[in-house]
Amino acid sequence: MNLTDMIQMERKFDRDVIQDKKIRWSPEERLFNAYVSLDVELSELANTVEWFKVWKDNRGQKTEAGKTHEETVLSEYVDAMSFFFNIANQNKWTYLLLISDDEMADFAKKPMTISLNKVFLSLKLMISKSLFSHKLEDFKHAWHLFIKFGLVDLKLSWDDIEEEFVKKNIENVERQENNY
To answer: Structure pTM?
Structure first.
């Protein structure tokens, strides 16, 4: 599995949901929906990791039923990733998401981030600028920051990310088939 395959899986899933649910919206509204969804998923990821909850003694323990904290973080990360794919598919920006194995290895070697708050806010700013200012470079930079955030700051492996993405895609297809 590679990024191109993952992007294609997301494209097919999105297309099937729109057709099956008979969703009728303008291209602009569909894109806005994807951006809102990405924003929400990034917030859910932050809420799961809990780095900002300095008032809590037991930060980083949040889990989904039947999952470890690490599995929950991975699941939330992949949820956000799917909306990066969705936005790229809609804007025909998928080429911005392609990362070579060497680039991926370089991301994994970067130092951990000192301020996850800054990473989170930077992601949101760049993503918003890509929508409202139509800045492709902001979207690409946000994507690269997101990948580095996952590999380095969250200590996720690319193999685990790919595996979880495929698993979630299959689950999402099954949910749709069962009138989710």
So the answer is: 0.93
